[in-house]
Amino acid sequence: MTVEYKKVLVAEDSSVIQNLLKKILLFENCKITSAKDGQAVLDKFEAEDFDLVIMDVNLPILNGLEATKRIRAGKTKKSKIPIIGISGNAKNLPVSEFFEAGMNEYIQKPLDYDKLIELVKKYTSTN
Q1: Tens digits of per-residue pLDDT, 75-99?
Q2: Which residues belong to any copy of the Response regulatory domain (predicted)?
Q3: Which of 5, 37, 42, 110 meets the CB 3.0–4.6 Å disulfide criterion with 31?
């Protein structure tokens, strides 16, 4: 039996949260690539194909909302990749801004792991 891995780009500047996400995603047969800032997200997104992006909104250099807008501006099949936004201080932003930027979903930190797994399955399912 061959295991099918999903490629997930994890955009998170906190190494603690990045490691937590990696551990959770490994149980869901995901191959993880990490980026610690918004510019690295764009560089890795251009260089590789991914099935899903999990994007912290408050990234250095280029924030997650702007990185999402730039991905969506590509107007290619690749630019339609599902993006799940995460943030610890979303209270300062209306949730509508996440969706206006082009994110498909949003999860508040501290992360609800069951919800995260549900969304990963929703967006990486081959059914």
Answers
A1: 788 899 999 999 887 566 778 899 9
A2: 7-124
A3: 5
